[in-house]
Design goal:
By secondary structure, the chain is α+β, with helices and mostly antiparallel strands. It has four helices and three strands. It starts with a helix and ends with a strand.
């Protein structure tokens, strides 16, 4: 509160002091308080960005395995053909070897999943431990 009073006091002193210094007091056409500076135009809100660096890989896990794991996960979740049949599938990665475990509805789905994952960058091979639970 004290700083606000000081700022107001300085502003009024400047108006009165400047007018007196330049030959008189402000007339009736001059305002007692100078106009406030125009507020800056509102800016577009910036989206929040997580700028924290990625967490380091856990001990014994290579950054390549993490990259392969992310690529496999993205493929299984976002691919139109695989996303509908990969809900009961788990994938693990160790030294570039992707191990698939779980259930798929058909032999075609099992083969397609293994072939597509084996073509991802960084995949050395795919260990297929999937079970076919029934043809669709």
């Amino acid at each position: 509160m004290r700083s606000s009073v000081a700022v107001i006091g300085i502003s009024l002193a400047c108006v009165w002091g400047c007018a007196h210094h330049y030959g008189g007091s402000p007339g009736p056409e001059a305002p007692l308080n100078p106009p406030l500076a125009a507020e800056p135009a509102p800016q577009e809100p910036r989206p929040l960005v997580n700028e924290a660096p990625p967490a380091p890989a856990p001990p014994g896990v290579s950054t390549m395995d993490i990259s392969v794991g992310k690529a496999v996960s993205q493929l299984l979740k976002e691919d139109e053909e695989l996303s509908g049949v990969s809900g009961n599938v788990e994938a693990g990665v160790e030294h570039g070897v992707v191990t698939l475990r779980g259930n798929v509805p058909s032999e075609h789905d099992r083969i397609e999943m293994v072939e597509r994952i084996s073509k991802l960058p960084g995949v050395a091979r795919v260990e297929d431990k999937l079970r076919v639970t029934g043809e669709q």
